[in-house]
Amino acid sequence: MLPVRRLTAVVLFIAAEPALAHGSEQHAGGPEWTLDPWVTVPLAALLLLFLVGRQRLDKRSKVERKRPWLFLGGWLVLTLSLVSPLHQGGERSFTLHMIEHELIMLVATFLLAASHAGGVLAWGLPRPLRRALGGGWKAPLSSLWRRLTEPITATIFQALVMWAWHAPALFDRTLASQGWHVAQHLSFVLSSLIFWSAMLDARRGSYLLSAACLFVTSLVEGALGALMALSASPWYSAYAAMGMSGIGLDPTTDQQLAGLIMWIPGGLVHGGAALGFLYHWLTSSEESHGLPTQ
């Protein structure tokens, strides 16, 4: 493993590199990368915490940890969603914007939650902060996290966040203000991270409850996507004012395609996960009753 100081230098370079690349690409007319330090700095800090935490834990224990690639994969998908040209394209096409949101909420946060990297990230913090988290702050923070990751609570919270941010008044704000856009993406990341953590924590409830929550989520997301896909007029004034989207579609068709992406792939992911949990519930029920499984 690299020394901590060298890790810090590498991650800071990664955070600065998109800004340097962006400047040259703008002059060359190439693809645009997001510069906003409110996006790149937290992403770099998150990676740094993970790498430093892994190094410190490896020094303390040689136990094999099998989930680093889940975290790194989730971080990579999240980073590419937020800083690659896909993000800039989403400001000119609702379809590209929807693809960005689906990557964040269905792929990136699922991988991050499945990595169970909270302990590793805590070990990446400076010692005073780490001691504070392990001392007086531990009980209230653990209690808050437990309440937020109750399966029903997490399901309702994500549904409210999803529907609220797609209301025309709020969504138009995100297209007009970078601050509102950052707030939207942050709430998507947090709500879906809480949701997937709740679904993947088998100790918090039965597989049947997780299956039910995932099925409800597929309906909630599917309903919102269907409303967009079946609408005969665009919902968002900023996209409507463009005339043609960045991918050559009129605003109504662009919105309908975005709605289909939310409706079908989103519904399939949540519905498929629900079936997986239902299968685990059935097999665990058979085992508990001493019935042979096929």
Task: Explain what you see.
With 294 residues, the protein is mainly alpha-helical. The protein has one domain (4-288). The protein contains 14 helices and no strands. The chain has helices spanning 4-28, 37-60, 68-83, 85-89, 94-115, 118-123, 127-134, 138-148, 151-165, 168-176, 178-200, 207-230, 237-240, 251-288. The protein is globular, with a radius of gyration of 21 Å. The termini are far apart.
Describe this structure in a few short sentences.
The chain is mainly α and 294 residues long. The chain contains 14 helices and no strands.
Number of helices: 14
Please tell me the overall pLDDT.
83
Strand content: under 5%
Poorly predicted runs of 5 or more residues = 6-30
What helical percentage do the residues reach? over 70%
Give, in order, the helices and strands: HHHHHHHHHHHHHH
Net shape: globular
Most strands sheet: none
How many strand segments?
0
Radius of gyration: 21 Å
For the termini, the CA-CA separation is: 45 Å
